[in-house]
Amino acid sequence: MPVITFTHHKGGTGKTTSCLNCGGFLNTKRKRVLIIDCDPQANATTGLGCDPQDAEKNMYDIFMSGTEGFESVQLKDIIVSTDSGIDLCPSSLDLAGSEPYLYEREDRLFVLKEAIKPILRRYSYILVDTPPSMGQFVINGIVAADHVIVTLDNGMFARTGVDALQTIFSDIAEITGTPVSADIAVITRGRMLQEEMTPGEEISDGFRRLLGMKKEEHRSREQFEEIVAFCEKSFPHVFTVPYDIHVHEAQKQGLPLSQYAPDSEAAHVYEKISAVIKNWNK
Description:
Helix content is 40%, strand content 13%. The protein has twelve helices and eight strands. InterPro entries: AAA_dom (IPR025669), DNA_Partitioning_ATPase (IPR050678), P-loop_NTPase (IPR027417). It holds the Pfam family AAA_31.
């Protein structure tokens, strides 16, 4: 049962959006999906309609489990059901407080991987959302993964971001002795995440749409095409997700696009990405 981690050390690349919406298309009556939120910002948690403060236990307790003075907690103890039908291991801002303790542990790279083992057979797919950083939660997500999905924006620093990720992969492979690479690159055209839009940006975006202007029209098409070409040489599968207001609306409702707007442009792309992921569970 594959563990799939969505990662990029830069913010605003669509990690959470991609994780939630792939999870939506993968989740069926016969295929159970678990999303593990390893980001202290807890965007995957709120994106599935859950309040980070409501959970009695969350990923903070998982990463603190085994530390002297803290109780032993397993993933099965923190899993919550969501209205989408996707199960969730929630996060909260408290998670950030566990990272300093991880540096004191010899097994710090493998905390998440070991935590997943007891529940692995309960799910058809386990998706891990990681924070925009190069810290222990990102490394844990990559080490635990059978497959890695990299998310990129179409900005000028996308290529340098890929180079930095390749360095991280090489460092992890050297330490663990297991090769690490990304199977899919998802390029988001425009700022898609609810949590990334300030009220002023939402108003500005609304005016652009009223005028019939799309955000990607303000980007260099040549630059975008260069990024796509670069990714096609670097990753087995490359997908481009268009800017789609339904993404923002779906996250407000705590639902994936597969349920909120299955015929939207972005939904069609995430359905195609999910079709590739399904081949990993045959």
